Model the fold of this input.
Amino acid sequence: MDDFYSPVAEFYDLVPRAHPEGEAALRKILAEVDPSAGPVVDIGAGTGRTCRVVAEVLPSAKILACEPAPAMRAVLTHDVVADEDLRRRVTIVGEPAESVVLPDSISALILFGVLGHIGPEDRRALWDRVLPRLAPGAPVLVELLPVTRPTALPPMELAREQIGDLVYEGSLEAEPIGGDLIRMTSTWRISGEAAPTRVVRNVSEWHTFGIEDLAEETGLAGEQLTVQAGVLRAPQN
Done:
């Protein structure tokens, strides 16, 4: 998987602060998980926001955090090392979703903000490895873009936050580029009297689909939780 995220890693944690619905949905579903069934696997763990949620909601869970982007993984490692509880429970690996070594049994799988970067063939290969390992009733939590088919997205606000004397403003726009793909451009503007204005742009590609498409791919029951978050559930037996 290409490293789309390191160039904008410094802004990553600003977005969920502006859009907390996904984290709320994650907390609600995780509260139903039995961590004795196996580790929680967090693919695309980023800077660790989802790992911290898992650790808080499931205080006995082991967590496998997969993050291939070096800048994101550096922040994740920093946070885990600084917390004795996380250091005991969180294992950090740098392999992408396509090749990460999975535990024999998975109590929950988290795929927040990552699944659209994986093409159909690699996604099918991931399901082939994941599905037999899901514990009965285990949830697969996904966070997608709010578009299920290729379409142009006008600029929309990602976040606006003041940190010290600087204001951080982020936006996202997208355009179809063929097949199921869209090209996304995120733009971050950092301004204020403390420093010259800085603009950071980042381009990535995203395969468009929705929860219903994933339910058909996997054979699991699917449920839309928020505009962007959804859950697939393994059978109870």
Observations:
- The first helix runs from residue 14 to 18.
